Amino acid sequence: MTMYKTINEWVDYIDEGCSVLHLDFNVFKKELSLNIKVFESEAEYTHKIVFQNVASAYYSADVGDMRLEKIDPEEYNWQVFEMSYHPEGIGNLSNSIIPEYQSNANFLIDMNRMLIAIEAETVRFDDQSFYAYQLNTK
Predict the structure, then answer these.
(1) What is the SS3 string spanning the chain?
(2) pLDDT given at position 118
């Protein structure tokens, strides 16, 4: 397996499809981690992705009323269907009822039609750490 040199290279590699083995969000450490397995040619590779100094995390179980359906986690083949990186963020996510809480996610993950939007300062792919947060001064 090739070692990637940028966040975008890692994201492109993961975006080709992988299985999710474990997901954990430790609010006390401000870390969200994913253990994944990638199938490439005849080989399998496992990786650990850790989003560090997470400023915000948004989760939606699906779209519309589907998000309220109950699921049995053992019946799913959990996969990352899409992952993207946005160095300057996707734009302000906020609600007028709680205007003091705002976020600007710089990573989007679609996992089995579930969306996880993460705003993180750094991301680690296995043993490689990258600074991921770029302030948009426009």
Answers:
(1) CCCCCCHHHHHHHHHCCEEEEEEEEECCCCEEEEEEEEEECCEEEEEEEEEEEEEEEEEECCCHHHHHCCCCHHHCCCEEEEEEECCCCCCCECCCCCCCCCECCCEEEEECCEEEEEEEEEEEECCEEEECCCCCCC
(2) 97
pLDDT of residue 137: 45
For the chain, which residues score pLDDT lower than 50? 137-138
Q: Please state, in angstroms and as integers, the Cα–Cα distance from residue 60 to each residue in 9, 18, 37, 72, 117, following that order.
A: 26, 20, 23, 17, 9
Q: How far is CA 132 from the centre of its chain?
A: 12
**Sign of the CA dihedral running 88, 91, 97, 99:** positive
Amino acid at 23: L
